[in-house]
Design goal:
166 residues; mainly beta; Lipocalin; 8 strands
Length: 166
Amino acid sequence: MHAQHEATTPISRRAVLQATGGGAALAAALLAQGLRPGVARARNQSSLVGAWDCRDVLSDPPRLFLSIYYADGAFLLIPSSPFSGFGVGAWTGIGERQLTVTDRRFRYDAEGRLIGRLTVRANVALDESGDAFTGRSVVEQYDLDGNLIGTGGGPFVGTRIVPEPL
């Protein structure tokens, strides 16, 4: 049986951002890509593989984000702000319960126009429980021509997202 498709009307990126709160629909689609049998079994006390609920420590109000560390070394970050794009990158272990991650993101202005990129590098330390981590980032901001226009960063923390029974 074939699904029937209705004609669709093109919508603007701004309309999508407004309707999805900065990309919730895209986040759901990207998360679904990582849901395969066996992925949940990859979690253990010395692995960051999995989904994490995170926040910057020094921001007021706190900047919240979700991150996923995939077993193959891929990394995905979903920001809470519509002005920062998803972070797409890679991670690798550098010691016991230690890792380094680099991701790249697009930056947008209040009207949803692309204004540049971010490169974020971070070191992360998983605690002994395996369900929380601390990290420190360095953020480099670039304009559309690739010129470095600012730097920042700081500490952040994360807690593992685990299945919760009904």
